[in-house]
Amino acid sequence: MRTTNRHGALRTAAIAALTGSALLIPAAAAMADAPAAHVGVAAATSKPAKPAKPVTIDIGAGVSVTVKGGKATFDGKTLKPGQVYDKGIYVYYSADGKRVYSKTQGGGVPYAIWDAKTGKSLGTQKTKPTAPKAKAALTAKPSATTVKAWQELRVNGKATGIKAGSKVTLQQKQRGTWKALPASTAVNKSGAYSLRVKLGLKGKNELRVVSGKTYSPVFAVTVR
Length: 224
Fold this sequence. Notes:
With 224 residues, the protein is mostly beta strands. It has one helix and 19 strands.
C-alpha cells in the first residue's frame, strides 16, 4: 500500500508539474509580446518660446522709439524694416531690422545710430541714411488679347523703382529685333501708366514696355 501511494503521489506531482508548465508558457509568451512599459520617465515637453521683449530707444526731445515684432513704433507711427519717417523728426528703420537711425529737430545735429535689438547707442554719422532703392520693374497688361487691324487698345501697367514722370515706351518684336512704336507716356505719381495702342501687323504680335534699361515681361496681342 505504501508503494502504491508513493507511485500515486509521484504521478500526481508529475501531472501538476506538467499542468503548471503548460499554464506558464502562454503567460511567458504574452509577456514577451507585450510592449515595454515606460517607467519613471516623463515625456519631455518643449516649452513655447517666449515672445521678444520690446526695446525702447530714447532718441531725445521727449520722443522714444519702440522696437517689437519686427516693427518700430514712435509717436503713434509704425515703420517696417526699410521704411523712413521724415517729418520734423527723422527715423529710419534699417531694411535688415538691425538698426534705427534718428535725428530730432535742430540743424547740424548728426544722425544717431541705435541697435534695434538692445537699444544701445552705436554712435552717430554725419550723412543722412536712406532706405535702399527698390529694384526697378515694370508690369504691362493689354486691355484685349485679340483685336482687328488698327483697332485701339490700351496697355496698362505699374512702375516700381522708377521716378514719376519717367517715360515708358511700347516695343514690338519685328523679325527678331525689338522696335519702338509711336506709343509712349509718362509714369504718374503713383507709379501707374496707360498707353493707347493701334496695331496693324496681322497675326501674333509680341510686345513689351520699356523705360531706360527696365523692361516689362513680354505679352502678346493677336491682330485679325
